[in-house]
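User: My notes are a mess, but here's the protein and zinc ion's SMILES. Can you give me a structure?
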Amino acid sequence: MKKKKYNYGECEICNTPIEERHIKQDLWIKGKLVVIEGVPAGVCPRCGEKIVKADVGLRIAKLIEDSDRISKAPKISVPTIKFSAKKAAA
Ligand SMILES: [Zn+2]
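Assistant: No problem, the inputs look usable. Here's the predicted complex:
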């Protein structure tokens, strides 16, 4: 028997049917950027709107409570640039 897929319905913004994908969810926790990989979510193929189910949201909340797990997780570096009010030189 095929597992029934969760129906995310249509995008609230552009009414496109939402597709299920596994995404990377980035969160700021106590001033640190934490990325959770493989989060099942509904993604609008047209405008990129993301929908995370309530139970997935709860799982994420549990994961980020685990500070030990976060401190032991592999680190990635991300580009950090400063916002400048000046226009970039053309
Ligand atoms: Zn959309």
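Residues 43 and 50 are 5 Å apart (CA to CA).
User: Great, I'll file this with my notes.
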